[in-house]
Amino acid sequence: MKYKTSVVLCTYNGEKYIEEQLKSIFQQSIKPEEIIVVDDRSSDLTVKIAKKNLEESHIPYQVIINNDTLGVVLNFQKGIELSNSEIIFLCDQDDLWEKQKIELILSKFSENPKAMMVFSNAYLVNEDREKFSYLLWDLYKFKAGLFNEQKYYDILLKKCVVTGATMAIRRELFDQAKPFPINGWIHDSWLAIVAPLYGDIIAIDQPLIEYRQHSTNVLGAKKLSINMQYHRFKKNIKNISTFRDNDYDKFAYFYLKNSARIIETGNEARILECIGFWDEMKKLNNAGFFNGNRILFNCYKNGTYTRYLGGLKKMVLDELSLIFKHRRLYKL
To answer: What is the set of domains in the chain, with CATH numbers?
Structure first.
């Protein structure tokens, strides 16, 4: 089956890598029907470089410069909205695509008419394209075989393993998922959490992009050194109350916006259990030491802590947050 395809590439001050990324798209074994570049008011040469390369590509294109800075989530929403294609590939400005990315992903959509989203594994590379010793999914401890229509929410309610730079979606999914929320959801995790309500998610256990890690990534993925883990620990423990509030709000919003479809697809009990768990975790923000430990113990005992947050390692962070709060030791 032949699909019309678009690549939506969002840019912001990406002059250093944009040409490499575009050339990797031009060299695809199956070319896209159009490339849509939406620039979020770059102050460098990103737009000039993009236009020069697109003009030489012989692929139809649009370059749109926002009147106001939208941020990554609304920038992707705008770009996808501008596309009329059935299959839309999301694209970051600083990665590189393997030559068969479009071809392999389109084959998965053809094999599975119910597929709303297809995503892949990725090589992790540094600024000079030197590959790391591990792949993107190694960080998530994810394997494609873990996904099937009964288990999507087993994974997605705990952690989003779908990276937008590796993703393609049916236009139908976007039409159901828009408008993108701006209350903590990132565009790729929002599309992923909505997708199982309308069809399947297909995971390709093959790296189809070089996912570049550098100092100016909006989002990134790499293993942390002991020192970096310590600094993240300090940041997380100081902001843990905000994280709990945000996670409750995110999943409550997801249910609110999609309740009819959640009920229709038989996912209501699971989603409400997740929201109930985060409601309990919010109570830790104002709980005394002993009551807080009671909440943690009950969530761990009934399995919700493991299902929606993590195991004992995560619980250590919550336990320490109670200790530090009541002993006033936040200045680590």
So the answer is: 5-212 (3.90.550.10), 226-327 (no CATH)
